[in-house]
Amino acid sequence: MSPISLPQKRFKNLLLDLDGTLIHSGNFLVHIEFIAKILPLMKGHRGWKAAWKGLSEGNDVFKVPSKEKTNKERLLDIFSKHLGLKYEDAETAVFKSMMEVFPTLKSHFGKIPGAAKFIEWAKENYTLTLATNPVWPIELVHMRMRWGGIDPSDFRSITTSDRMHACKPTRDYYEELLEQEKFKAEDCLLIGNERKMDLPATRVGIAVFLVRPDANALTCIECPTDKNPGAWRGSYNHLKEMLQSN
Predict the structure, then answer these.
(1) What is the DSSP letter of 173?
(2) Do 186 and 226 meet the contact criterion of CB atoms below 8 Å apart?
(3) How far is CA 124 from CA 134, 155, 175, 245, in A?
(4) d(Cα 7, Cα 2) in Å, to the nearest integer?
(5) Is 18 strand, coil or helix?
(6) Spatial distance between the Cα atoms of 50 and 48, rounded to a whole number of angstroms
(7) Checking CA distances to 212, which of 40, 52, 193, 205 falls within 20 to 30 Å?
(8) Each residue of 4-43: pLDDT tens digit?
């Protein structure tokens, strides 16, 4: 790859996605199983229809950023309404149900080749932030990390549902992350695995690397310019080599 296609400055902060990037997170079946197991636990309040409406609207609410309420607050508002519970009681019921269901899904999650080894190297050279899509409480994020062989203590912070007001792939999510962490966009590299969810970070000035564990070569997706921070694709070995080159 031509030197002109490589990053033109050294990054200080690595923002790492979780599912599909650091850990294997199954496929669409894990979502089906989650819904099938949590619905019976929540139907006891106002029945199947109310439980389904809560889950359905809860999924939709994350598509639009909020100026006033965190993702967690918006989700609990919805369940409070549909289940006929006070906010605090809805919080208890939803959290208890999630903590009962999620451990049964462990078989869907696992290690991604090269991820843990890369973190061991990267934590000595960069500030690490877990830039996961903030729809879950920290307990469930830590649970999934450990299933994938990733140590939560290696990360300075995690974008969880109780602190964020937007989700990927909106630019609001990336702007809020930069603001909360007091990072400059040009000092950051987002490491993800999905074009749709992760590549939009370039719109706020954050460079992006999409991990493909079986990639044969480092590829430049978007060359860095004055207006574009750049985007690349490759394996964890390619990522490490790229970071060492700048």
Answers:
(1) H
(2) no
(3) 26, 11, 26, 16
(4) 11
(5) coil
(6) 6
(7) 205
(8) 687 877 999 999 999 999 999 877 788 899 999 998 988 8
pLDDT value for 2: 61
pLDDT of 193 strictly over 80 = yes
Residues recorded for the chain: 246
Calculate mean pLDDT across residues 109-137: 96
Confidence (pLDDT) at 1:
58
The DSSP annotation for 53-104 comes to: HHHHHHHHHTTS--SSS-HHHHHHHHHHHHHT--HHHHHHHHHHHHHHHGGG
| CB under 8 A, 24+ apart: contacts of 208-212 | 208/232, 209/233, 209/234, 209/239, 209/242, 211/21, 211/112, 211/115, 211/235, 211/236, 211/239
Place of tokens 């790229």: 242
